[in-house]
């Protein structure tokens, strides 16, 4: 059991411990590694990963020719055949290496468990780009109806790491493509999230690529542009709001500021002492 758990990864290990507490099938004997014929195995049609890097697949196949398959794959029985739950890359590479059998753990899982293990296994891969990871986490939460905290627990990540990953999907398609192509990093993307205007975000993203800006340089640029944007917005406050502010200030005898949003706003009324507050409240009540 210890040897098997060592190769599963933190999230899958925790997931199996959770299943083990719920079902009898996860007894020691159920986790024995078997040699299964490669021709008796079918891929999972719901596999989250649809593309496999050919060069890396060839490297893995060569490694398997020399050393064999070190980490067993996970299967579920389907009639007289088996379906892959986790380890499709290893199965494909073993097939390319002309292996006839592959080490596997066969488990009797329901569809929800199959989906969960498959998603977790793929999300723990180190070669996922930030957008693949974010989309995978989002799919996991939607299909399994999980909160960010629950998803984080299953993946062996912090809740903030999951939240930051999913937030990347609010960026434009253009910026997501730059992330997928590794032209910008997740650090750059998180800095861009602080910019509210989508067109401005895209402009900054272009500048990151063209000038090779670091994450720190991007954060400084965003901070400066946000300050300019706030000043600009303050200067173009509608005339009717300025008139209302002026009227309220005259009536209440103190400074009043109206901050209008698209659907709601805030009225700020300043006071300078408890007596001043009572005076303003009295005037408002009387009005």
Plain-language structure description:
The protein is an alpha/beta fold. The protein has three domains: 2-111, Conserved hypothetical protein from pyrococcus furiosus pfu- 392566-001, ParB domain; 185-234, no CATH class; 239-286, no CATH class. It contains 14 helices and seven strands. The chain has helices at 2-6, 10-22, 54-67, 88-96, 111-123, 130-144, 148-155, 159-167, 173-180, 186-192, 198-211, 215-235, 239-252, 274-286, and strands spanning 34-37, 41-42, 73-78, 81-86, 101-106, 256-260, 265-269. A five-stranded mixed sheet has the order 1-5-3-4-2, sandwiched between helices. It has a two-stranded antiparallel sheet with strand order 6-7. Helix 3 packs across helix 4 (88-96).
Question: Short summary of the structure?
Answer:
The chain has helices at residues 2-6, 10-22, 54-67, 88-96, 111-123, 130-144, 148-155, 159-167, 173-180, 186-192, 198-211, 215-235, 239-252, 274-286; strands at residues 34-37, 41-42, 73-78, 81-86, 101-106, 256-260, 265-269.
Output the strand order for the largest sheet.
Answer: 1-5-3-4-2
CATH fold-level topology of the largest domain: Conserved hypothetical protein from pyrococcus furiosus pfu- 392566-001, ParB domain
CATH secondary-structure class of the largest domain: Alpha Beta
Largest sheet descriptor: 5 strands, mixed
Terminal CA distance = 76 Å
Q: Count the E strands.
A: 7
Low-confidence stretches: 1-12, 18-23
What fraction of residues sit in β-strands?
A: 5-15%
Tally the helices: 14
- What spatial form do the alpha-carbon principal axes imply? elongated
Whole-number radius of gyration?
28 Å
| Average pLDDT level | 81
CATH architecture of the largest domain: Alpha-Beta Complex
The proportion of residues forming helix, as a percent range, comes to: 55-70%
Domains (count): 3
